[in-house]
Amino acid sequence: MKAAVYYDIGDIRYEEVDKPAIGFGEVLVKMEACGLCGTDIHKMLHKTVDTPVVLGHEAVGKIVEVGDGVEKFKVGDRVFFAHHVPCFTCEYCIREKYTLCNQFKETNIHPGGFSEYIRVPRLNVENTMHIIPESLSYMEATLIEPLSCCLYGLKKLNIRYGDKVLIMGAGQVGALFCQLVKSLGVGEVFVSDISDYKLEKIKDFGVSGTINVFEENIVDSINKLTNNKGVNIAIVAAGVPSLLKDAINCVDRGGQVLVFSPFNSETLMEIDGDKFFNDEISVIGSYSSTPYEYDIGMNMIANKEIDGNKMITHVLKLSELEKALNMSTDIDENSMKIIIEP
Ligand SMILES: [Zn+2]
Ligand SMILES: [Zn+2]
Q: How far is the CA of 205 from the centre of ligand 1 (A)?
């Protein structure tokens, strides 16, 4: 079978790899679509993973083989599945920090989403696999995983009707957060980015104001938009380290900052420590998603509470992963969500 294998920065090869064999409780899926995630882009640009590796985790497809012991699924089912599974019993899981569980990152689909066929291990089948409703296309279903990550992040925030929200980053995650917070009844939503195209496109999701950070100072702009109060919630949805400091300076007293992006780990920044005690701001991190979000996310897309189609701007072939990566980072390519199909 073919897979798009990541070897090095600028070196992705569409090549022949062994088709995985499945064992007890496992399922073999023919990949029908796989989203290109911001974390895939980050890994490929900065080589933060051991290589060679097949990336991609926003995969969906059709079951072509089921192992002994699989009872809930059969050949022909259209399915969603996640790549990581917590153990549900360790000290982190008991505290509902499922994505910090040691088992979480040890579990994975094989070889990865950017592959013609994917072996889904027993734990992933049992805890994360769902049959995709007929009304949901494979393309839209690729958004179940990123939407679930957003749902997990939102659980950590205390959001109220009328809140003012700043979303930093008008990519797919920004567009998902926009739709989610609007559905929760927040007041105004502001979005910042460097791409005029994305800022224009995201206006479709009920945005009150946009800020191009190439042209405007974000803190000044937010002050202008909020009568010098700041926003109640700032969501960092772009992996630019300076955004964390900006986010902290954009929230009102009592404000919450949700950090939703990987930064390069050695990044140090100066933050006014008084903001935590005197202004009671909080900074909350959120990584990945858990088995408790997938069916909720899937139903939200199926019920059109989240408009997936509006977000998908490009569909490319598995053989074109490198092109997809370059498109995602080229501001002139006007991309929001890129989907890879076999
Ligand atoms: Zn993702
Ligand atoms: Zn655990």
A: 21
